[in-house]
From TrEMBL:
GO biological process, one term: nucleobase-containing compound metabolic process
Name used for this protein in its record: Ribonuclease H-like domain-containing protein
Organism the protein comes from: Crepidotus variabilis
GO molecular function: 3'-5' exonuclease activity; nucleic acid binding
Annotated ranges, domain 3'-5' exonuclease: 6-207
Superkingdom of source: Eukaryota
SMART domains: 35EXOc
Pfam families per the UniProt record, alphabetical: DNA_pol_A_exo1
Length: 246
């Protein structure tokens, strides 16, 4: 992990501090990630991780503890997490926004706005070099390929997987167990910590003269992904791995 501080937000007092940080005038973009048990409209949101590009604090918002207050609680400036996520002024950087959008909209009525999906940016980076791209790639593989974060990141990832992934003997239910295991906290924070760096790396893979056009396509594709997650019937399974044209 970098020099960023990890702060669990499980009270409205801490949420006030979080909102003050992520709505500062110097915030131009936010890195966002979610964790949950069967994270989608049919499951739960347990944690929401958020980091401002202008901040050194990764905020882990405990949705399991705070419930709807995580999104509706207003600070003295009138800001809520819902208004931040729905606002159009600040870019929200995700890696595969689809499941997160599905859960946020259907469980809490949140309509994400101004999203930038790095999974689509990764597809754009490959396609811009003339490669035929049929499938999207998961975040862990992309981080290893483009950033190579080192042994500490790998250790945290493997420890978290052993605790959480059923095929490794773990259980996603640990996201909802309190007090939250420190290893789960570290696991939840480390991906969002790298999203801005990953964005820079992926954009640099695209030729300078083509970059603006591809980024425009990524923004449009990101918006479509958010909207598709609002549909009454939302596809799951292998078809989600197909890299559609955007």
């Amino acid at each position: 992990m970098s020099s960023h501080t990890i702060q669990l937000v499980d009270t409205t007092v801490l949420l006030d501090s979080c909102l003050l940080d992520i709505t500062s005038l110097s915030t131009t973009k936010l890195a966002v990630d979610l964790e949950g048990v069967n994270l989608c409209r049919d499951g739960t949101i347990s944690l929401l991780q958020i980091l401002s590009v202008a901040s050194q604090t990764i905020w882990i918002i405990d949705v399991t503890v705070l419930g709807v207050l995580a999104f509706s609680h207003s600070n003295l400036n009138g800001d809520t997490l819902k208004s931040v996520l729905e606002g159009s002024q600040v870019t929200k950087v995700f890696y595969d926004v689809r499941t997160d959008s599905d859960a946020l909209f259907n469980l809490f009525g949140i309509k994400l706005s101004n999203t930038y999906d790095l999974q689509l940016l990764e597809v754009a980076a490959r396609r811009s070099s003339g490669k035929k791209v049929s499938y999207v790639i998961g975040l862990g593989k992309v981080i290893n390929q483009y950033i190579r974060p080192g042994s500490q990141w790998t250790r945290v990832k493997e420890e978290g997987a052993a605790l959480l992934f059923p095929d490794k003997g773990g259980s996603y239910e640990l996201f909802d167990k309190r007090p939250l295991d420190e290893r789960v906290l570290q696991y939840s924070a480390q991906d969002v910590n790298l999203l801005f760096q990953l964005q820079t790396m992926l954009e640099s893979e695209i030729g300078r003269y083509e970059r603006a056009g591809w980024i425009r396509k990524v923004i449009q594709g990101s918006s479509r992904r958010v909207d598709e997650a609002h549909l009454p019937i939302y596809p799951k399974g292998r078809q989600r791995a197909i890299a559609t044209f955007f």
